[in-house]
Amino acid sequence: MIDAIQNAKPSARPLIEAKGVEVAYGKRTVLAGANVAVRPGEIVTLIGPNGAGKTTLVRALLGLVKPTRGEVTRKPGLRIGYMPQRLNIDPALPITVKRFLQLGAPKGDCETALGEVNVGHVSDQPMQAISGGELQRVMLARALLREPDLLVLDEPVQGVDITGQAEVYRLIQDIREQRGVGVVMVSHDLHVVMAQTDHVVCLNHHVCCAGHPEAVSRHPEFVALFGDEIASTLAVYAHHHDHEHGLDGHVHGDNCDHD
Q1: How far apart are the C-alpha atoms of 123 and 97, rounded to whole Å?
Q2: Tens-digit pLDDT profile for the chain (259 aa)?
Q3: Beta-carbon neighbour count of residue 223 at 10 Å?
Q4: What secondary structure does DSSP assign to 6-25, as a single string?
């Protein structure tokens, strides 16, 4: 796999950028002074405790909420594919996976999208009959039908078991590499997501810290939010991986650049 950091293009114009974004509901400020930019081929992950303002920032990026202060700029003609955290379907509503996808994008190639996320076999199954992992992939396929420049994924592994979570994150990496899309993720799964992203933004009603996952995991404000134990056990291993590990654990053919 291409190293995640190589996919990001620091010199490229951002697909979307928030500058000094503040959102208040009445007298209550839920987000203040937030800055984030996402470029083509870059995965940016928003982390933070519950109620920290992650969803509010996503809503501001999507244009669903107007910032009280600051601004959000988007690339002209930007196409966004959005995957919500959860989907509630009336169990009495008889609808197949394919029909569900057609409701959102009647001109899209549903079968191709399902194949891209490796669930082509569920096309004719009722939405209520598929597993949690299959549902998340169907939702990702729905986002891809828009041929997006930017994917916005809110808790993409919600309701998925541990094995399935790793598979979904690998799938997101593959989509990023094949399509060159920018990706914004919201996640609570620190151990996995910190190893699967290029840039982390840690929120707690403001940006506590931001940057490369390894740097963020060592930042005092991150440690204060999540605790020494979690911070110390995050195994972030980011480098140009063009060597192999032998069965004895030693590195063979080490031509890599270690960060």
Answers
A1: 5
A2: 334 334 555 568 999 999 999 999 989 999 999 999 999 999 999 988 888 999 999 999 999 999 999 999 999 999 999 998 877 777 777 899 999 998 866 566 899 999 999 999 999 999 988 988 898 899 999 999 989 999 999 988 877 777 778 888 889 999 999 999 999 999 876 766 667 789 999 899 999 988 888 787 777 787 777 766 555 555 443 433 343 333 332 334 444 333 3
A3: 16
A4: HH--TTSPPSEEEEEEEEEE
Query: What is the rounded distance in angstroms from the CA atom of residue 126 to the CA atom of residue 93?
Result: 9
For the record, the structure tokens of 250 come out as 């030693």
Q: How many CB atoms lie within 10 A of CB 42?
A: 26
**Structure pTM?**
0.80
Kindly report the CATH number that applies to the domain delimited by 4-79+150-252.
Answer: 3.40.50.300
